[in-house]
Amino acid sequence: MATVTTQAPRRETGGIPAEVTSFVGRRQASADVKRVLSESRLVTLTGVGGVGKTRLALHVAQSVSRAFPNGAWMVELAKLDDPSLVGNAVVTALRLTDSITDDPEAVLTNYLANKRLLLVLDNCEHLLDSCARLTHSMLVSAPNVRVLATSREPLNISGEHIWPVPPLSVPMAGASLTEESAHRYEALQLFEQRASAAVPGFTISPANEETVARLCQQLEGLPLAIELAAVRLRALSVEEILERLEDRYRLLTGGGREAPPRHQSLRAAIEWSFDLCSELERKLWATLSVFAGDFDMEAAQVVCAVAGLAPDDVFNGMVGLVEKSVMSRKDHSGHARYQMLETIRQFGREQLNPIDERAIRRGHRDYYLRLVEEAEADWFGPHQMDLLRRFAVEQPNIFAALEFCLTEAGEARAGMRLAYLLWWYWFGVSIRDGRYWLGRALALDQQPSNERAQALWVDGWFSSSQGNYKHALPVLHECRDLARDLGDELTLGHAMQFIGLAKWFEGRLPEAVTAHEEALVHYRAAGAVNSLTALAMIDLGMTVAMLGDPQRDVALCEQAIAMCQERGERWAQSWGLWHIAFARWLLGDLAQVNTYARSALQLKRHLDHVGVAWCVELLAWSAAASGQAEHAAVLFGIAETLWEPIGGGRLSGWQGLIDWSDERREQARKSLGAQAFQAAFDRGRGLAIDVAFAYALGESPTVACAEESFEGRASTRQAYEQLTRREREVAELVANGLSNKDVAATLVISQRTAECHVDHILRKLGFTSRTQVAAWFIEQRN
User: Fold this and answer.
1) Residue 258: what pLDDT?
2) Tell me, what's the pLDDT at 647?
3) 485-500, pLDDT tens digit by residue?
4) Could you give the 3-state DSSP secondary structure of residue 336?
5) Is 113 a member of any domain?
6) Coil, strand, or helix at residue 29?
7) What is the pLDDT of residue 713?
8) Which residue of 101, 223, 300, 384 is 20 to 30 Å from 593, comparing CA positions?
9) Taking all residues of the chain, what is their mean pLDDT, rounded to a whole number?
10) Strand ranges (E), 293-334
11) pLDDT tens, 417-476?
């Protein structure tokens, strides 16, 4: 063996390239990788192409190089095609040029035996076996050597610590931004810095921050995509770049000439990953691209069967795609779910031919239609909360299935079915979304059918709930006539029930009573016992109460509540409780109003957004009538915020109730004075949702926190100054209702770190709950 004559200088750092552009963000990621590297001799940074693995590895290597007397050295492997040359590449990187003709593994074993250095093996994914064998050999023979590898796939050798590199942090969709908060997000910081290099003087400002945020959201925080987009500012505005993102692979090109080919365009980065996949993995990648958002293994196996893939092939292929960072896995309620970044998904979709794509998308639609059918059948029972949680997760795939139905010839009727069967989900979560999909489906297929009849009553109901009676009644009359022609007693019952609702809201109470009573006749003929039949009884009670018989209202509601309790149903039961509260309002029994309205609110929490608004509104009336003017003003502010996303204005445009509401508001305003009322009202509008719930329910200590004046909180104001910058960021996210897990994801820190920050905040402020933190933070912000 030849003698090695070239030695690394003490504390040599020349093996790590100097940073040409500033390193943006990743503070917590850098700290975490350093910590892991201090505990493990092999750390592999994994992640999708363009996520910034190399940049993070080099930054960490530079910052820890002083801990390695023999230096930190980078070995660039991307341009290497021959696996047998990996050892030579390491020898060359270490400048052991006199030994280049010898067996590289032997040279490295001899040279590294007594060295203390860090090797950065960059881009190992296409040379995994060779990298794994050589790394294992070096770690065994050189106890003071550490290796920091980057790869789209782990090396899978003993002692390896895998550290997935996440995208840069971006604002959540719909999050409000200030100039200060915009700069907190890593993706926006990177865009601004790279954009200012391309267009001197560019900054993120109130005029463009929302557009830049949307751009970074659509680019999913991928550093490569963001940098390529920033370059395009030489020719396009931020708005124009955003508009052209549908063809992101064509748009996002033009990386620096010094960059490796795979980083000169977004397509090249993704093609690099695609080429590394097996034939099975490529087919699976393309097939799974029909999913939107995340999905589980069962869904993948059912849908991929359309493409001829067996369940075992799907399982093994998905394991491979997760290993290669093409897909990510996350846990949801104890079950694994899988997701592709939109950039990855679009590339996969391009690999499908149109015939296969239609067949797979139809299979995807059929799977989710079956899920919806099962859920609707199960709605009248104890699993309502579980169903809403499940379908909140599945919503992107539901929307994708609906879009297929409404853009593919001959599928509109299936789209109607999918949309109307989700009535329980739309009403609890988003009436606007329900009306959007129903409206599109009804416009596409206007031929008489059972599906059309069903879609019509749901559309009519939702229109009434938004106060749009001019649309609702013609639609419901069409449903009634069609149901009669079809001989469908159940659908006829639905039509009459919601005709009654529309007439009730219009103030035509005797007609409303007649329609509701007719609906119950049809339901009995159909043998129907479900949430809607219970609701029909409850709504009949409301109309008779308005006509002067609140006792009959209570009796009808109690009968419906008992029917629901027998089945463990909560949604219709909560409406029964609200209606009893309203009957007590008519009787002037304010104590019982609060009792029943709060009981209804407890059931509706996380279950029925529309009903929550009705509950808070009624509690505000009761507070005003009881002389609790400030409490009423805060509740009116909360209710105002709750009404906004429903559409149609507060109280569904029901003029009788609007008049009562206006009277109670004016009562509270006169009692407090206009300025004090507005201040309390605005405070209610600004409360985070969890704090608002606690306030409405009268839960302690939240009420005290929410009602304390800003001036009376000098001690907590001083405590605010004691919080670190990071703790203030965490407090703001807690105030916005984020869990510790969500806080960690937003700030790109570990969940354990997020938990520690929350504990420190509680201790410094002297609080015992996150709800107190949220209420306190709202006050500080105001």
Assistant:
1) 46
2) 64
3) 999 999 999 999 999 9
4) strand
5) yes
6) helix
7) 35
8) 384
9) 85
10) 294-295, 328-332
11) 999 999 999 998 888 899 999 999 999 999 999 999 999 999 999 999 888 888 999 999
Q: Are residues 112 and 229 in the same domain?
A: no
Same domain, 213 and 113: no
- The DSSP string of 355-414 is HHHHHHHHHHHHHHHHHHHHHHHH-SSTTHHHHHHHHHHHHHHHHHHHHHHHHSTT-HHH
Same domain? 128 vs 256: no
Q: Is the pTM above the cut of 0.70?
A: yes
Spatial contact of 597 and 620, defined as CB atoms under 8 Å apart:
no
Q: Last residue of a domain, which of 135, 164, 193?
A: 164
Question: Which of 394-398, 482-486, 733-737 has the least mean pLDDT?
Answer: 733-737
Does 628 reside within a domain? Answer: no
Helix (H, G, I), strand (E, B) or coil at 32: helix
- Residues 183 and 140 grouped into a single domain: no
The domain tally of the chain equals 3
Show the domain range for 728.
707-781
92 and 204 inside one domain: no
β 328-332/335-339 pair status: antiparallel
In a domain, 236, yes or no: yes
More confident residue, 770 or 45: 45
Of 570, 601, 577, the residue nearest 379 (C-alpha): 570
CA–CA separation, 365 and 596 (whole Å) = 42
CATH of the domain at 763: 1.10.10.10
* Element of type H or E holding 644: none
Percent of residues in the chain assigned helix, strand, coil, to nearest 5 = 70, 5, 25
CA torsion, points 25, 27, 32, 35, in degrees to nearest 10? 140
Phi-psi group of 221: left, alpha or beta (phi > 0 → left; psi -120 to 50 → alpha; rest → beta): left
Write the pLDDT tens digit of every residue in 253-272.
655 444 455 555 777 888 88
Q: What angle do CA 319, 321, 327 make, to 5 degrees?
A: 105
pLDDT at 60: 92
Q: With contact defined as beta carbons under 8 Å apart, do 516 and 539 qualify?
A: yes
Amino acid (1-letter code) at residue 345:
R
Poorest-pLDDT segment among 29-33, 143-147, 612-616, 712-716:
712-716
Give the closest residue to 598 by CA, choosing from 703, 698, 687.
698
Q: Report the SS3 class of residue 322.
A: helix
pLDDT at position 5 over 90: no
**DSSP assigned state of 81:** -
